[in-house]
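Lab notes, practical 5.
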Amino acid sequence: MSWQTHYAEHTMPVEEAIKRIHSGDRVVTGHACGEPTYILDAMVAHADDYENVEIVHMVPMGKSPYCAPGMEKHFRHNGLFLGGSTRAAVAEGRADYTPTFFFEAPRLFSTTLPVDVAVVQVSLPDEEGNFSLGISIDYTYEAVMQAKTVIAQVNPQMPYIYGKTTIPAEKIDCFVLHDAPLIELASPKIGPVEEAIGANVASLVHDGDTLQLGIGAIPDAVLKFLTDKKDLGIHSEMFSDGVVDLAEAGVITNAKKSLHPGKYVVTFLMGTRRLYDFVDKNPDVYMAPVDYVNNPFVVAQNDNLVSINACVQIDLMGQVASESIGYKQISGTGGQVDFIRGASMSRGGRSILAFPSTTKGTISKIVPLLDEGAAVTTSRNDVDYVVTEYGIAHLKGHTLRQRARALIAIAHPDFRPQLQEEYERRFHEKF
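Output from the prediction step:
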């Protein structure tokens, strides 16, 4: 049977496709801006047809209506990373959170979280009948490979991206045609604090470095201060529109990369249509599953790898909480540790944790001790550079006493006196 015949025979309305999902199934979906919201919304509209369907994904960018109160009988979300539309359900006991390093997420689908149904969004097919998973490769690729049933929304607005991104038509059981704009993430507002942090971080970046960037105002602020650099590269779990600016300015060329020279290497994307058009059939973009892109041993093959991430709190020993506020889970481990450890093993590598010194000017992010119940995302042994708007602290290879002094020096001035008191109590000497 030709792929065209398979495609035609397995194309159906969404209401027909979701009948392939049964009560008690585990459904793994594409995530972030690649979330197949059209199919998920159809499932919720037919919630009475299901009992105890588990929905597994990472970053939620849609409204996650299956997490709404009253849906408990029909759906239970299992988050590998939480967001605004899923936090309350976990906090209230109506959903679950499973900790994992991002690069290990695909392995779960062949071990503790076997996949009944993968629900994904794909591009139009190429001439050989291959559909690109587009902007969500990450764990989604392995979910498709492991699933008993695959339901795909075929969206002409999904970019076709090169790399290990494609699924042959024969692997997909149900095709649902739906042309709709992808979820977009607008560029964040960059204020004076973010600009100061961006300038401090940029001072640690050298010509020819390869970057891993997170998302938000601080990574975008960092990019703003890199315009005078040369031949930067990208090997990152994701990137956004700010990278396009530097690519068009000739700052990011990937020419000096020791692994995949000339290529932007990434596992998922979040941004606006401008970003999606930039990566569409771009031969310089290489996307691959997260168990390759984020694997610390792969990351380390990039010389001069600089990872840039954020956190919620850091204590005076250098322990980092990046995913919870006390007992409340707010996000997930994600790829922070993957890249911090990869950068540590990279020849000339550096890892940077960059964040404002306070939350809303009233709560210090540099604290004597992490809040009770807070999960340690990155251990004190892994932390290298810490950056706030007040400067740079280098922790790796330094004593607890030296770490505390360096962190207090970059804390907000309003909170330094109480941190100094803690220093004197703990180390038995005047600050």
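Observations recorded by the TA: Residues 10 and 174 are 5 Å apart (CA to CA). The mean pLDDT is 97.
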